[in-house]
Each structure stands twice: as C-alpha cells, then as structure tokens.
Amino acid sequence: MTNSTALDIVAAIPLGYLLGSIPFGVLVTRLAGVGDVRNIGSGNIGTTNVLRTGRRDLAAATLIGDMLKATAAVIIARQLWGEAAALAAGAAAFVGHVYPVWLRFKGGKGVATYLGALIGVAWPIALIFAAVWIGVAAATRYSSASALAASVAAPVMLAVVSRHPTSAAVVFAALSVALWVMHRDNIARLMQGRESRIGQRSEQPSSGA
Asked: What is the DSSP letter of 102?
C-alpha cells in the first residue's frame, strides 16, 4: 500500500471535490429535454428524484454517473498519491455532490456518490452496501430507509474485515453520519408515515429525497 504525504492528501481533495460536483441528474434531464430536475418532485438532483420524471433510463444514467465520479476520484488519487489520498478524494467527492459549486452548493444527498467511493476503496463492502439497500428497498419501497440501513452496514463491515485499514472505517462512518444528517427530513417523514415510496411520481417540489 502506497503511503500518502500531507501534500498528497491536500492535492487529492480538490480533485475529488470537482469530480463529485458534476451534477449528472441536472445534466441528463436537461439533455433529454425533460427540464430541470430541481423543478420537480423534491427538487433534489439525485437518482430517486430523477425517477419521478417517469424516465427509468435517466434515473439509471444519473445513478451510474453519480457513482462512477466518486469511483474515478478514488482510483485516480490512489494512482497518483496513494491510499490515504484515495480516501480523501472519495470523501471530497461526496462533499462535492452534496455541495456542488456549480449549483450554488445545493446538491444531492450523496447515496450514489457514497457507494461509488466505497466501490473504489473496497468493492466487496460496496456489494454488501448494495445488498442491504436492495433488501430494505424490496421490503419497504423506501429509498431513504434503504440508504440509511446500508450506510450503517458499510463502516461496520469495513471495521470488522481486517484487510481494510481502520482509517477507511472511520472515513465512511463520518460519511454515514453526514448521510443521516442529509436525510433528517426523510427520517421525520418515515416516523410520521408520510415518506414517498420508490417510483412515486410528484409534480411539485417538496423537501423529500
């Protein structure tokens, strides 16, 4: 495992942030001629809200783009500067997605980008994340609940699988906390039984996912 210097980590952060800030949800919906995704549903730029356009192909493209931008950040930073820099780039990509400079720092909630960073850092744990997400989604049809459950499983598994360094578990635990904070409105609606389900279309902006 290549060691990273402090300067390497500093260099990796803007790389990760800029890649993470690419707003695929906005780009694919505009290119497809369905308007600005920020003007429908929850107003969020992520996959769940793009799905509310009724275009599964656009939602899939958004999911793939939002994942792979973080995966790319991790891989590029690892090749240039080492493992610690790769972790920093992945975390910065998450921040870039949530607070993109191009959209006045109003982005998505970071689930796909979290998963993309996890793919780059430890793809077997990413498979566990995806399995938990799919299982909870199949049982509840709540995207937010699926993401929250998966984000708990990921750092726990990073911590218990010895071949992954403690630093990775700590970084993803911090990202999981951020993910829960970003979903605080969803958590409130889940507790009240008012959360939108996967695939539910909505024409007016709300505060949801």
From this structure: G
